[in-house]
Specification:
By secondary structure, this protein is of the alpha/beta class. The protein has a single domain (about 10-160), classed as Response regulator (Rossmann fold), CATH 3.40.50.2300. It has seven helices and five strands. Strands 2-1-3-4-5 form a five-stranded parallel beta sheet, with helices on both faces. Helix 1 (about 20-30) crosses helix 5 (about 115-140). The chain starts with 11 loop residues before the first strand and ends with a helix.
Amino acid sequence: MPKADINRDKLHVVVVDDEFLIRWSIAETLADAGYSIAQASNAAETIRALEGDTPDVVLLDHRLPDSVDLGLLASIRQRLPQAAVILMTAFGSPDLIEAALRLGAYQVLTKPFDIHDVAALVFAAHAAVVDSRRKTHQRHSAHPVWARRRSRGDRESRHQAER
């Protein structure tokens, strides 16, 4: 597994699952690959973890003790539109997958899964996040504010030309 070095010292991942062994094995695998990891076992802990932190990727279990629908996914996407959210579920119905993707999930991962597939998926999600940030940065830096402003004379000339 490649080390996490895309445009930053460490990629930050939040792993959310109420099953300790799943959460621990994912966290250990990603930490060994060079990622910075935070963990949460329920929706309340997840919200607290996200208040003071901005993760690049969130691995989110679909069913938590205090959240059994896609509300937490929607909340995370609203708070952190730049983060990639990978939804993990043992109940991967086509309707659930479609709804999760519509809400902005990067991918839906069906349990049981191979831990190495998770690490590869997190790496791909991080690459997509970095690519999106680069494109946003290029769009904003390619046209400085002073270059985008039009003088009053430019607006009047364009208005006359449209007549």
